[in-house]
Amino acid sequence: MFTAVKFYGVPARMCLFEGENHGLSRNGKPLHRMRRLKEITDWFEKYLTKERKN
Fold it and tell me: 18: domain range?
């Protein structure tokens, strides 16, 4: 997904969480899961709302 959005010029960054794998959303450490969700919602808020916050 990261490579695809970067290919199309969409602002993105990859967040890696030490000791976690692809199941982070279900089985990760609670603090990592919260950080992951915050990263996603912040991106949605910035790039998918009607009034962009640049």
Answer: 2-47
Dig out the tokens for 23 from the structure: 């199941």
User: Which residue has 């199309």 as its token pair?
Assistant: 8
- For residues 24 and 32, the answer to whether their CB atoms sit within 8 Å is yes
Residue 40 in any domain: the answer is yes
Beta carbons within 10 angstroms of residue 16's beta carbon? 6
**Do 31 and 22 meet the contact criterion of CB atoms below 8 Å apart?**
no
> How many independent structural domains does the chain possess?
1
Report in angstroms the alpha-carbon separations of 35 from 4, 9, 14, 50. 22, 24, 13, 24
Give the rounded percent of residues in the chain with a pLDDT score beyond 90: 67
